[in-house]
C-alpha cells in the first residue's frame, strides 16, 4: 500500500474514532442531564415551608397518595408533586393565558401573545389573588412555595428546557399563576363564543329574520333534556322571503362557489364536525344501582396532548378539629384543588355547560372625542394599558390595550365599530378558590351551594352522596341579566342590557333527587322554562349524544360501575343511521348507472356496522357525506353573510342539523343551490366529492376505514415544533374507535375523553379512573405513557391508588 495513502487512512480513522468519542461524550452528558431532571421519588428531603412531615406515596402507575397533617402542608406537597412531574406543562398553561409564550419560544408566539394580552389576565390574576381571604391566601402561598420547592429539587431543569435553547430557564411560580391556569381553561371552554356571537350578529344583519330563525333553531327532535320537552323548530321560509333560484341569487352563488370551492375545503368541512370542548357526565341514584349507592360517571372531552391535562392524586389530611379527610380524583397541575372525584361522602363530575356567559358589546364612539365612548352615564375615556411582550432572541413588542367599563376592546366589526367582550372570566367573581370547599362536603345539598359559589368556567355539576341521592346544578358564577337575547352584538349605551350582579346560590337552577333516579348531561340543554332562561343558550350541543346516554341509562335497572364504562365506550352511530338510510336510498339504479365508485360505496354502506369502529369504511363515508351536505346547503343559504364578512362561518354548527335534514328530505326548490338542478344532484355531488377526496391517498375504497382517518395524533408541544422528536415524545399512532360527535364515545386523533371515571362515594374501591398518556411529563419516566394502553382500550384502572411502590417523605427544617 502506498505509504501516503496509508497515513491518510490512519488520520481518517483517528478522526472517526475521535468523532465517535466526542459524540459519545456529548451524548452521555446530554443523557445524564436528562436523567438528572427525573424527580426523586424515594427517600427523604428536608425542606422549608411545611410544619410536619408529609409523605408522597406513588403506586405502580405513579399515582400519588399525599398524606399530610394539615391542609396547608398538603397544598405545599401537592405543588411539590405537580412541579416534579408536570412543571413544563404548568409553565405553558400560565404563559398561554398571560400572553407570555414569546418569552420562552420566540417570535412564533407573538401574534398569540398579542391576542391574549387583550384580556390582561396577569393583571386580573394578581388582583384576584389579593382579594382572597387570609386562609385561602395562605393555602395558595403554600402551594406556590411547594411548586418552587419541587422545581428546585430537580438536579437539572426539566428536559423540555434542555431541548429548547440554551437560555431557556423555568421561571419561578408566582401566587397569581394558579388563576392564570384557570384562565387558560376559560379560553379553551368559552372564548370561542365571542366569534360565534359575532357571526350570529352577521346573520341577523344580512339575512331575513325567518331564515336566521330557521337555521339557528332553539332545538330539534334530538333534544334530550333531563327536565322539559324538545323545543319546537321553525319551518323554512317561503319563496316570497328567500328564493335561491332567481337569476340574482344564482349569480351570487355561482360567483361565491367559484371563489370558495366548497367541496375542496377540508378545513371548512371539519368545522361542521362540531367537536368542541365538552364532556359527558351522569349520575344514577342508589335506588337504581346494584349496590345501593349513587354512582357518578364522567368523561371530559378536551384536546389531548402529551402529557394529558389531568394529574391523578389522592389527598389525605386532618382539619383543625383533628378530623381526617381524604379526596381522590384528578387535579389540574398549577392549581391546588381536586377538580373531579370523591371524598367518601360526595362524588362530583363536570361537563361544559354551554350556557351564555359572554356578551359582545358594540361601542358607540363619542362624536366629540376620539378617545371616548358613550355609556348610560355619558361619555367615558378609554383606559390605556401599555403592554410589553418580551420575545426570546428578538426585540420586545409594545402596544396598548383599551379597556372600558364593560371589558376590553377586542376588535372591530366589518363596519369599523369597536367590539368589547363582557365576559365572566374578566370579572372578579370569575376565579376563586371555593372549589376547595367541595373536598369536605358531606351531602349533595352542601355541594350544590359550594358549586354555586365557585369561580370557574361554568360547568354542569352532577353530584351524588353516600345516601344515594343525586343532583345537578351549575358550578360557576351566573350573572343576573335582563330578558334580552345576549347572543346578538349590540350597543349597551341605553343601559337596557347591563349585567346586574350575580345570582345567589338559592336562585341557581337545580335538579335534586329526580323521581326516576337518573341525571345526564352532554353539553346539550339540560332544562327548560325558567331555568333555561337563567342559563340562556351559548351553543348547546345537538342532543343526540345526551339522548343516547339517556337511553343507555334506562336500559340498565341496577347499574354497576362496569355499566358506566360500557356507556362511555358506546360507539354506536345511532344518530347517523337516518343518514345512512338516506344515502343508500339515494343510490338507486339510475344513480349507479355508469358510476362504479358509487356502486362500491353502496356496498360499503350496506355493511357499515352501525358503529364508529376502526375497521368500518361505511361509517367514514356516511360521516363525511353528512358534513359535506351540511356545508353545501349552509354555504348557499348564507352568501350575503360572506359578502359582508369574508371570514364568516355559520355559528353553532350543531344547530343546522335539523334545518338541513328538513331541506334534503322535503326538498323545497326555492332553497336549492342554483348550481344544481335537483336536490338529489346536490346530494350525489356531495358523495362524489367525498369519494374523490378518499382516493387521494391511493388506497382502494375497501381500505379507507375510519381507523385510517381516526389515528391517534397525541403529541408533545415540542414535537409539533421539532418533528424529529416525535418518536420519543409522542404517543403511538394507533387507530381509535369513537366518533367526533353525536355518540357517547367521542374520539378524534387529537381530542376526546381526557379522562374516564365512575365512582360511588364511600365505595371508591369499586370505581375506576382512566387517563391518556401517564402521570409524568418526563419522557424518560416509567410513568410517561404507562396509563395510555388502558385508556386506548377502555380498560378499567382502579379509582384509588394502589400499593405504594415509591415513598418520598418531606420533612420540615
UniProtKB/TrEMBL annotation:
Residue segments, region Disordered: 739-765
Q: Which Gene3D superfamilies match?
A: 1.10.1400.10, 2.30.120.10, Glutamine Phosphoribosylpyrophosphate, subunit 1, domain 1 (3.60.20.10), Penicillin Amidohydrolase, domain 1 (1.10.439.10)
Q: Which UniProt keywords apply?
A: Hydrolase, Membrane, Transmembrane, Transmembrane helix, Zymogen
Q: Which GO terms describe its molecular function?
A: hydrolase activity, acting on carbon-nitrogen (but not peptide) bonds, in linear amides
Biological processes per GO annotation: antibiotic biosynthetic process
Segments crossing the lipid bilayer: 12-31
- InterPro entries cross-referenced by the UniProt entry: Ntn_hydrolases_N, Pen/GL7ACA/AHL_acylase, Penicillin_amidase_A-knob, Penicillin_amidase_dom1, Penicillin_amidase_N_B-knob, S45
Q: Is-annotated flag, keyword Hydrolase?
A: yes
The UniProt entry, under CDD domains, shows: Ntn_PGA_like (cd03747)
**A Pfam family recorded for this sequence:** Penicil_amidase
Q: Which family does it belong to?
A: Belongs to the peptidase S45 family.
PANTHER family in UniProt: ACYL-HOMOSERINE LACTONE ACYLASE QUIP, PEPTIDASE S45 PENICILLIN AMIDASE
Please identify the protein, giving its name as recorded.
Penicillin amidase
Instruction: Report the source organism.
Output: Cladocopium goreaui
Amino acid at each position: 500500500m502506498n505509504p501516503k495513502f496509508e497515513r491518510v487512512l490512519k488520520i481518517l480513522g483517528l478522526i472517526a474514532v475521535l468523532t465517535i468519542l466526542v459524540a459519545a461524550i456529548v451524548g452521555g452528558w446530554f443523557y445524564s442531564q436528562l436523567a438528572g431532571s427525573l424527580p426523586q421519588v424515594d427517600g427523604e428531603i428536608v425542606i422549608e415551608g411545611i410544619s410536619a412531615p408529609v409523605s408522597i406515596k406513588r403506586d405502580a402507575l405513579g399515582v400519588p397518595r399525599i398524606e399530610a397533617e394539615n391542609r396547608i402542608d398538603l397544598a405545599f406537597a401537592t405543588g411539590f408533586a405537580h412541579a416534579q412531574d408536570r412543571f413544563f406543562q404548568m409553565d405553558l398553561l400560565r404563559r398561554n393565558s398571560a400572553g407570555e409564550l414569546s418569552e420562552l419560544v420566540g417570535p412564533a408566539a407573538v401574534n398569540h401573545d398579542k391576542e391574549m394580552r387583550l384580556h390582561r389576565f396577569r393583571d386580573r390574576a394578581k388582583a384576584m389573588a389579593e382579594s382572597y381571604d387570609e386562609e385561602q391566601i395562605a393555602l395558595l402561598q403554600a402551594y406556590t412555595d411547594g411548586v418552587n420547592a419541587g422545581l428546585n429539587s430537580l438536579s437539572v431543569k426539566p428536559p423540555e428546557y434542555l431541548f429548547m435553547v440554551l437560555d431557556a430557564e423555568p421561571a419561578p411560580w408566582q401566587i397569581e399563576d394558579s388563576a392564570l391556569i384557570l384562565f387558560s381553561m376559560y379560553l379553551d371552554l368559552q372564548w370561542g363564543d365571542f366569534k360565534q356571537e359575532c357571526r350570529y350578529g352577521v346573520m341577523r344583519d344580512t339575512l331575513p329574520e325567518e331564515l336566521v330563525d330557521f337555521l339557528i333553531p332553539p332545538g330539534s327532535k334530538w333534544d334530550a333534556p333531563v327536565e322539559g320537552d324538545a323545543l319546537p323548530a321553525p319551518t323554512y321560509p317561503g319563496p316570497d322571503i328567500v328564493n335561491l333560484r332567481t337569476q340574482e341569487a344564482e349569480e351570487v352563488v355561482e360567483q361565491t362557489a367559484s371563489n370558495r370551492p366548497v367541496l375542496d375545503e377540508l378545513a371548512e368541512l371539519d368545522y361542521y364536525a362540531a367537536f368542541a370542548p365538552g364532556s359527558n357526565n351522569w349520575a344514577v341514584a342508589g335506588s337504581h344501582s346494584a349496590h345501593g349507592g349513587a354512582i357518578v360517571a364522567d368523561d371530559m372531552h378536551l384536546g389531548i396532548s402529551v402529557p394529558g391535562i389531568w394529574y391523578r392524586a389522592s389527598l389525605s389530611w386532618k382539619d383543625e378539629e383533628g378530623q381526617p379527610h381524604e379526596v381522590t380524583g384528578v387535579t389540574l397541575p398549577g392549581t391546588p384543588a381536586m377538580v373531579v372525584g370523591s371524598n367518601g361522602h360526595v362524588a362530583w363530575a363536570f361537563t361544559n355547560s354551554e350556557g351564555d356567559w359572554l356578551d359582545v358589546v358594540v361601542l358607540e364612539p363619542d362624536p366629540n372625542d376620539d378617545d371616548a365612548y358613550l355609556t348610560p352615564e355619558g361619555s367615558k375615556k378609554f383606559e390605556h394599558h401599555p403592554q410589553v411582550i418580551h420575545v426570546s432572541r428578538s426585540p420586545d413588542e409594545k402596544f396598548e390595550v383599551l379597556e372600558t367599563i364593560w371589558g376590553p376592546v377586542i376588535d372591530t366589526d366589518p363596519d369599523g365599530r369597536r367590539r368589547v367582550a363582557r365576559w365572566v372570566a374578566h370579572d372578579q367573581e370569575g376565579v376563586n378558590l371555593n372549589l376547595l370547599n367541595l373536598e369536605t362536603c358531606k351531602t349533595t345539598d352542601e355541594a350544590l351551594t359550594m358549586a354555586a359559589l365557585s369561580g370557574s368556567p361554568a360547568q354542569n355539576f352532577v353530584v351524588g352522596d353516600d345516601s344515594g341521592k343525586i343532583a345537578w346544578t351549575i358550578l360557576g358564577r351566573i350573572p343576573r341579566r335582563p330578558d334580552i337575547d345576549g347572543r346578538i352584538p349590540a350597543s349597551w349605551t341605553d343601559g337596557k342590557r347591563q349585567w346586574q350582579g350575580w345570582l345567589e346560590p338559592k336562585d341557581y337552577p337545580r335538579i335534586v333527587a329526580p323521581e326516576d333516579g337518573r341525571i345526564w348531561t352532554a353539553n346539550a340543554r339540560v332544562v327548560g322554562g325558567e331555568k333555561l332562561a337563567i342559563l340562556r343558550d351559548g351553543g348547546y350541543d345537538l342532543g343526540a349524544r345526551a339522548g343516547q346516554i339517556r337511553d343507555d341509562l334506562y336500559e340498565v335497572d341496577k347499574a354497576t360501575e362496569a355499566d358506566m364504562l360500557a356507556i362511555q365506550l358506546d360507539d354506536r352511530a345511532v344518530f347517523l343511521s337516518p343518514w345512512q338510510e338516506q344515502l343508500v336510498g339515494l343510490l338507486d339504479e339510475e344513480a349507479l348507472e355508469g358510476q362504479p365508485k358509487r356502486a362500491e360505496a353502496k356496498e360499503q354502506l350496506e355493511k357499515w356496522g352501525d358503529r364508529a369502529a376502526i375497521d368500518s369504511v361505511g361509517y367514514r363515508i356516511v360521516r363525511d357525506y353528512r358534513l359535506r351536505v351540511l356545508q353545501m346547503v349552509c354555504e348557499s343559504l348564507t352568501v350575503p353573510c360572506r359578502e359582508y364578512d369574508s371570514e364568516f362561518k355559520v355559528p353553532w354548527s350543531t344547530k343546522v342539523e335539523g334545518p338541513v335534514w328538513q331541506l334534503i328530505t322535503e326538498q323545497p326548490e326555492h332553497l336549492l343551490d342554483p348550481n344544481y338542478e335537483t336536490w338529489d344532484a346536490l346530494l350525489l355531488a356531495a358523495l362524489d366529492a367525498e369519494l374523490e377526496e378518499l382516493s387521494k391517498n391511493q388506497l382502494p375504497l375497501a381500505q379507507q376505514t375510519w381507523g385510517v382517518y381516526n389515528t391517534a395524533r397525541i403529541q408533545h408541544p415540542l414535537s409539533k415544533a421539532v418533528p424529529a422528536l416525535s418518536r420519543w415524545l409522542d404517543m403511538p399512532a394507533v387507530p381509535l374507535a369513537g366518533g367526533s360527535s353525536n355518540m357517547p364515545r367521542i374520539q378524534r386523533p387529537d381530542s376526546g375523553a381526557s379522562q374516564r371515571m365512575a365512582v360511588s362515594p364511600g365505595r371508591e374501591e369499586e370505581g375506576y379512573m382512566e387517563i391518556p398518556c401517564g402521570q409524568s411529563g418526563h419522557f424518560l419516566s416509567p410513568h410517561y405513557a404507562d396509563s395510555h394502553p388502558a385508556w386506548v382500550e377502555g380498560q378499567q384502572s382502579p379509582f384509588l391508588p394502589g400499593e405504594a411502590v415509591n415513598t418520598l417523605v418531606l420533612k420540615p427544617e
